[in-house]
């Protein structure tokens, strides 16, 4: 079954006739189109793809299994006709459609076409990776590992966080990646207490922790990997934080397997942090799905009831953040299997001094 066939099968379960796919990543996943203005309509026997003049040639090369239509740049204007006879229940991706766009859609569609909120159907398919997708994610993870070694060889002390970030992103491109999957994080000293710190024009000092959260993108697929290095001998407190995060991270990786709910895996790592008295300093979820997007389903978090399945690709990334002192996070990218998981990011997690 093709990806579109599988989504069409899900529609029947939801009592829908068709799905209007407007999220561009979902459009790409189903049709192969990588442009920035396109939408698809999918259902049993229906494979419509709409784009505007600018992308006709690109779509001709990329979109081979859909009926292609060229419509005005406001693609919605192409949806006035082309619908099956009679009443139609049309699902739409309510997580991607603004209130305004939904109103305009309503005005464009014939009255007999009913718009039904149906977000998440394509995302559910995307969560389980096919072998070709896994190959791209593996390649992105391997490239990310490679870049870590380049940065370690270059050293970090005396370079600014921004210089390090720019250099490592350039390496991703030079070594065959499309570039970074997200804006790289390089956070040293007390700045490491911010989980999503922006790299600064400040030089990395000696005897601090420096957190690098980076990921390459290959063939559209993302990698995501965090390491926290020491830039010299550390004060005991920082060394202990790193050791604790590592224990929690290893407990999280050991817990991953098909059938578990996201919150159960989260708890395996969080319990280690809680037991050491740092629960308040671990204020985010344990991990997230990764694929065409850097954050996708499923989520590993205290509230996540989503069950892991073979082929899910998720991160395991506990962190401890102490305001004014610094922080540590360690993140691996793993593929869920029946019995456990396979770790895709292999650069060392052991305490590492990079000066
Ligand atoms: Zn990350
Ligand atoms: Zn992540």
Write the layout of secondary structure elements.
Layout lengths: L2 H11 L4 E4 L2 H8 L6 E6 L2 E6 L4 H7 L4 E4 L17 E5 L6 H10 L4 E5 L3 H7 L3 H24 L6 H14 L4 E2 L4 E4 L20 E6 L1 E3 L2 E2 L2 E6 L5 H20 L6 H14 L11 E3 L6 E5 L12 E4 L2 E4 L3 E4 L2 E5 L4 E3 L12
Parallel strand pairs: 1-5, 3-4, 5-6
Antiparallel strand pairs: 1-2, 2-3, 7-10, 8-9, 9-12, 10-11, 13-14, 15-18, 16-17, 18-19
Helix pairs in contact: 6-7, 8-9
This protein binds zinc ion (ZN) (2 copies).
The site of one zinc ion (ZN) has 5 residues, from loops.
Account of the protein in words:
It is built from nine helices and 19 strands. The chain folds into two domains: 3-126, Creatine Amidinohydrolase, Chain A, domain 1, CATH 3.40.350; 131-343, Creatinase/methionine aminopeptidase superfamily (Creatine Amidinohydrolase), CATH 3.90.230.10. The chain has helices spanning 3-13, 24-31, 56-62, 99-108, 121-127, 131-154, 161-174, 236-255, 262-275; strands at 18-21, 38-43, 46-51, 67-70, 88-92, 113-117, 179-180, 185-188, 209-214, 216-218, 221-222, 225-230, 287-289, 296-300, 313-316, 319-322, 326-329, 332-336, 341-343. The radius of gyration is 23 Å and the shape is elongated. Strands 4-3-2-1-5-6 form a six-stranded mixed beta sheet. It is an alpha+beta fold and 355 residues long. Strand 18 (332-336) and strand 19 form a beta hairpin. One zinc ion (ZN) is lined by residues 224, 288, 315, 317, 331.
